[in-house]
């Protein structure tokens, strides 16, 4: 029998493994789940409330393997970027981002590489290699949480699926991860603290909406279909009117809003005319706009916007009755900022 990594099992699948494969009583599921997701156990000998016989049998057919930290970089602003090796040797990155309140947000990857090939994104330039599993997605949280605990830092507060990959192109594993995250016997991370960043795939967004497991943040980055086709050619295969119609039917609770991410590229999409077009596009929708200044580095295809122009862009949106925020760029000095992840050691 091929050994299985227990991190890759949802609670229901772990229960089937315990009852059907191991022939153990159902309550063992809860014990093992707690050891894995609450107490960071990586070896079965640590699971002291299991019988000795079970602790001896488990390693014969299963194991617990976290993503391995290959490289770690710390930014001057407190951001921490991890280069992680998966079981097959492929590399991904995850980032811990400090907030002004002293808590941390973790930026999670869902794919090795990305198939969307957005022209401003380093991950997109990698191409797509494969989807990440349930255990690989959630294993990033175990790594990040352990780092915070070992260094006496604040708790992990929020999760954003904004790392490498298009989350909705790995929908099944994403949904399993979101359900497992919510499990009160394990990570106990509420759906209110999770955001899924996506270029906007209507069919998958409809499924996410019905699940009520997370809110989306839409990587918009252009106020017109024509400009989106230039900078996000694959994402733009979904017309903006179709995307907005999908978002209009996304179920929102009172006081919830759809977030639109807008990366400001110097001289490309950052003029006041673009701001006016964006205000017309989004209209009176229940939404907010996160403005992100592009972090240009050597050989990048775009340049950073003028800081004063960013402020003018934000002000125009407010004047049009919209809620807009300039998102503070974190981790740019270690290439951990938006669009900079590319799974390179020391890069």
Any key phrases for this structure?
TIM Barrel; 33% helix; 14 strands; elongated; 347 residues; two-stranded parallel sheet; DNA polymerase, domain 1; 2 domains
Which SSEs are present, and which pair or pack?
Blueprint: E1 4-5, H1 11-21, H2 27-37, H3 52-61, E2 62-63, E3 68-74, E4 80-85, E5 91-98, E6 104-107, E7 111-113, H4 122-126, E8 128-131, H5 134-150, E9 156-161, H6 171-182, E10 194-198, H7 202-211, E11 215-219, H8 225-231, H9 240-248, E12 258-264, H10 272-282, E13 287-293, H11 307-319, E14 324-326
Parallel strand pairs: 1-2, 6-9, 9-10, 10-11, 11-12, 12-13, 13-14
Antiparallel strand pairs: 3-4, 4-5, 5-6, 7-8
Helix pairs in contact: 1-2, 5-6, 7-9, 10-11
**Strand segment tally:** 14
Give the distance, in angstroms, between the N- and C-terminal Cα atoms. 40 Å
State the share of residues found in helices, binned by percent.
25-40%
Task: Indicate the CATH architecture of the largest domain.
Answer: Alpha-Beta Barrel
For this structure, what is the CATH class of the largest domain? Alpha Beta
Structure annotation, total helices: 11
Placed side by side, the strands forming the largest sheet appear as 3-4-5-6-9-10-11-12-13-14
Summarize the structure.
The protein has 347 residues and is of the alpha/beta class. The protein has 2 domains: 4-63, Orthogonal Bundle (DNA polymerase, domain 1), CATH 1.10.150; 68-334, Alpha-Beta Barrel (TIM Barrel), CATH 3.20.20.70. It has 11 helices and 14 strands.
